[in-house]
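Case study 2.
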Amino acid sequence: MLLKKAWRVLLAVLGVAERLPYPEAVERSLHDPGGKKRVVIYRLSDGTFSYQEEVFNDKLLDMRWEPKGLSQACASPEAAEAAARKALPWLWAVHPEN
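Prediction:
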């Protein structure tokens, strides 16, 4: 919630609050078998969906998921997952959630 508010404030300061969709909720996430990569499917503020690849940084003082940027908007979470599977070869071995 705090991150969402901070994001809105930043966008308002930059004057792009109405033009730029932002992540509102996580729809699902898919993890590689080794646990070092994941793809998060987000619902954006404009009702579209996007995916973001993240890599886990396991350095002692920096342990966190580091994003690699959002994809283009998709019409559904399934379309976002399909786009992620097409763009990220490591994801081919990960089975969809049931």
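The beta strands are 23-31, 37-44, 49-57, 64-70.
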